[in-house]
Amino acid sequence: MLPIKTSALLLSLSLCLPGVHAGENSNISAADRARAVRAAKSPPARPAAKKAPAKFDFEGEFVDYANWKEVRAFLDDMSARHGFDRAELDTLIGKVRYVDATVQLMKPAPPGKPKNWQAYSARFIEPVRINAGVKFWDENAEALARAEREYGVPAEIIVGIIGVETVYGRNTGRFRVLDALTTLAFSYPESPTRAARMEFFKGELENALLYARKDGIDPLTLLGSYAGAIGLPQFMPSSIMKYAVDFDGDGHIDLRNSTADAIGSVAHFLVEHGWRRDDPAISVYRVTVSANHAWEKFIGQGLQANYRLEELQAAGVSAVAAPPPNMLFGLIDLQNGSEATEYHLATNNFFAITQYNRSYFYAMSVIDLGKAISQVRAR
Which residues are marked as active site? Predict the structure, then answer.
């Protein structure tokens, strides 16, 4: 999970509950639903012969981090504040490598390319992810139901997040986490926010070392994303330390191998970031907007539901289906390149998901993937 993502990505229409059905507030088109059903009914493709995976993908380059002033200060601090053996830290940092790929991937995309919600959505609401989600839900139904009971987060939202993040563990990342975090903590690319981002990744490096020590893991064996996110739900190390839970009760937290721990941890993260179990199941409402553009002042006003329905209606926002009264909403725009932008009212629970990944596109994809999987399972 990226920094938000870290850790938000990141709420839901709980269509798996009796009496709740996809309708005008569903962001999935009829064609998408039909494709999902056809995909679920299609015979599975014969799996290709598996090759033994590489130990990790990016071996990186040797950089003498042990002699960098900033690195030495960091290691001194880890020893003083957390009791790490300084000589062992020196040995460890001598094995860490600079990975240029992490630097390149952190650079912003070139300007000028318009955002396109439909293209983004198509990457996630597709047969492979939907069928894998059905299988994941079936195999983990008990843990998902328990997480829904204990945390109030619908199963389809948890399934949606893990599906968007890693396709249920298929793509958890093959960078060595210590390489990625050290590179970003001390060699972050030039940008206006470079200093702040380096501090952030120093904090993640600190938490990665604390997590590895706490769970008795060789820190060099931790694999993850180019930003250092780990496991099925792609938690950053700080999120593991704060929000991950031992949901399978085996005495330790393992987001890399325990689907139950991943499920419980996602639910706990959302609750800690504002998820409300008693809010209505529907968390987004399709709207139209008037030609007077008075509603534009509500766009881009943060990742919170701050506005009363009456305020939005007075500015020219009209819901396709009536949202509940006495709630606060945010107005979100889903840009479609050269096509018309889609607009929705979003509730508090939608914005809870954006704390996982700070993106409207991300949160809507989580909701839509969860709905599609729920619909296929129900048939």
Answer: 165
Measured between its terminal Cα atoms, the distance across the chain in Å is 32
In the numeric block, the tokens 């995909």 are attached to 39
The Cα–Cα gap between 130 and 373 comes to: 5
Token pair, residue 33, equals: 């639903």
Burial of 272 (0-12, 13-18, 19+ CB in 10 A): middle
- How many other CB atoms sit within 10 Å of the CB of residue 38? 11
Confidence of residue 109 (pLDDT cuts 50, 70, 90): confident
Tokens standing for residue 7: 């850790």
pLDDT at 1 over 60: no
Torsion sign (Cα): 188, 193, 195, 196: negative
- Does residue 24 contact residue 318 with C-beta atoms inside 8 Å? no
223, 57 contact by CB (below 8 A): no
**Nearest alpha-carbon partner for 173 in 7, 10, 254, 56:** 56
Give dist(CA 130, CA 335) in Å, integer. 24
Distance CA 348, CA 304 (A): 6
For residue 204, which of 221, 224, 190 has the smallest C-alpha distance? 224
Q: For residues 47 and 19, what is the distance between their CA atoms, to the nearest angstrom?
A: 38
The predicted model scores a pTM of 0.86
Q: Give dist(CA 171, CA 117) in Å, integer.
A: 22
Give the pLDDT confidence score for residue 141 in this predicted structure.
Answer: 98
What number of other Cβ atoms are within 10 A of residue 234's Cβ? 31
Residue in 298, 368, 378 with CA at minimum distance from that of residue 333? 298
Q: Which two tokens stand for residue 80?
A: 């003083």
DSSP string, 50-62: PPPPPS-S---EE
State the angle between helix axes of 127-139 and 141-151 in degrees (0 to 180), rounded to the nearest 10. 80
Bridge partners of residue 308, in order along the sequence: 328
Neighbours of 223 (CB within 10 A): 19
Element (H, E) at 288: strand 284-289
Round to whole Å and give the CA distance between 376 and 126: 12
Sequence-distant (≥ 6) Cβ neighbours of residue 69 within 8 angstroms: none
Quick: pLDDT tens for 34-91.
556 455 555 454 443 344 444 556 668 899 999 999 999 999 999 999 999 999 999 9
